[in-house]
Write a structure and sequence with these properties.
The protein is of the alpha+beta class. It has two domains: 86 residues, 3-layer Sandwich (Rieske Iron-sulfur Protein), CATH 2.102.10.10; 242 residues, Alpha-Beta Complex (Naphthalene 1,2-dioxygenase Alpha Subunit, Chain A, domain 1). A hairpin with a 2-residue loop joins strand 16 and strand 17. It starts with a helix and ends with a helix. The structure holds FE2/S2 (inorganic) cluster and fe (ii) ion.
Length: 417
């Protein structure tokens, strides 16, 4: 009965809008509650287009950690969907998220991936922009041409706990509650003073939602991730690791740190960005996410010892964070086409840690490289499977509660005009 009601409620919400139901709305309304998404959500180009409009361009995305551009003049180019953002640090130290589209006739003005530059000279007709985006020179233009009207467009940028977030929306979702939640979680782990130790991009032959859905559930951890499952208790149902979680919270508390226990989940209703912060234990004696649970880098932030726990953050539709006391992980999901996407992983360590002296890159990155290689394979297996006309969504398991939450959030966003 509950399931039927949930479906009816979704259909009702849609019919309450003044727009007639289109084919995508009809598919959303037909979604069987508690079941996986149907085939078109992973294959149809028009649904991908709507994903981009209503999920991708509406929500905040983690671009990187600010240590990617540490000095005045540093820049890096990021590709997100069809868009390119030049992240720059201006002379005053402030960050800017500039769109890489010349205001003359649209050429890419930045053609290098990374570097240091006071200005970007468009390769087409040489309009010249400062690294704050202002148009500084436009050769042979009439005297009355007003350069101040033709600076590079910028997307909204927010920083929190050292992370850089961007939104393409004219009126972005409220980021303040997210900022507070990030300060209370990643902030305690010293992410504000961290640095990027390593990054790795994985090209995935699958719709971006298959990659995200795989990330948010750990029902697959036991069968698919033997290495991860040796150290992380999340491979088990939550009710079976309650005791481990309680011991972890007691240790965190004894360190004088308040990361906040339990599930804290905020949806995107009421114009706020969605965020979900939760904690889970490592197995007894395991201190961090590494091959054998041994420390891999100097302790960070307020942590003076290991608490045997992990803090996990799911933010908006594409940004996922994992905090260990000695390192952090940022998982970015980047949609490309209806059936391809990218995952980028960033490994964060204490800002003054030195490779070779304080951490070994191989040891630091081993666990999540192995785990992500496995994930890439299973996501692509799933992608090929759901392209079959015989694919029929099956029931979501109780252990996949975060997957169900993600699907419901996604469908609500897709239905919201
Ligand atoms: S398109 Fe950039 S200067 Fe003409
Ligand atoms: Fe996985």
């Amino acid at each position: 009965m509950t399931k039927l009601h949930a479906g009816t409620a979704l259909a009702h919400d849609l019919s309450a809008t003044t727009q007639p139901l289109d084919a995508i709305d009809a598919l959303i309304a037909q979604q069987r509650p508690g079941f996986a998404l149907t085939r078109p959500f992973y294959t149809a180009p028009d649904i991908f287009t709507r994903d981009m409009e209503r999920v991708f361009r509406r929500h905040w995305h983690c671009l990187t950690h600010e240590s990617a551009v540490p000095n005045a003049g540093d820049f890096e180019l990021f590709k997100l969907g069809d868009e390119q953002i030049i992240l720059t640090r201006g002379a005053d130290g402030n960050l800017h998220a500039l769109l890489n589209v010349c205001r003359h006739r649209g050429a890419e003005v930045c053609t290098r991936q990374k570097g240091n530059a006071k200005a970007f000279v468009c390769p087409y007709h040489a309009w010249t922009y400062g690294n704050d985006g202002a148009l500084r020179a436009a050769r042979l233009m009439p005297k009355e041409f007003d350069r101040s009207l033709y600076g590079l467009k910028q997307v909204k940028l927010r920083m929190s706990a050292g992370l850089v977030f961007v939104s393409f929306a004219d009126t972005p979702l409220d980021f303040d509650p997210v900022d507070r939640a990030l300060q209370a979680s990643c902030g305690q782990y010293g992410w504000g003073n961290a640095k990027i130790a390593h990054r790795e991009t994985y090209a995935i032959d699958a719709n971006w939602k298959l990659a995200v859905e795989n990330y948010v559930e750990c029902y697959h951890c036991g069968p698919a991730h033997p290495e991860y499952s040796q150290t992380h208790a999340l491979e088990q149902p939550l009710h079976m690791i309650e005791e481990l979680n309680q011991s972890m919270e007691a240790r965190t508390c004894a360190l004088g740190i308040e990361v906040g226990s339990g599930d804290r989940w905020q949806t995107s209703e009421n114009g706020q960005e969605a965020i979900h912060v939760f904690r889970y234990a490592l197995y007894e004696g395991v201190r961090t996410g590494s091959q054998d649970g041994s420390p891999v880098a100097p302790l960070m932030g307020r942590f003076t010892d290991y608490d045997g726990g992990v803090t996990s953050v799911h933010l908006g539709g594409t940004s996922f964070l994992v905090c260990y006391p000695d390192h952090g992980m940022v998982y970015r999901f980047i949609p490309k086409t209806a059936d391809s996407c990218e995952m980028e992983l960033l490994w964060l360590v204490k800002g003054d840690a030195v490779e070779g002296r304080d951490y070994d890159l191989e040891c630091l990155t081993w666990l999540w490289r192995v785990t992500t290689d496995e994930d890439k394979k299973i996501i692509e297996h799933t992608s090929r499977g759901v392209r079959s006309h015989f694919y029929e969504p099956g029931p979501i398991a109780p252990m996949e509660q975060n997957e169900l939450r993600y699907i419901n959030w996604y469908l609500a966003e897709l239905a919201r005009p």
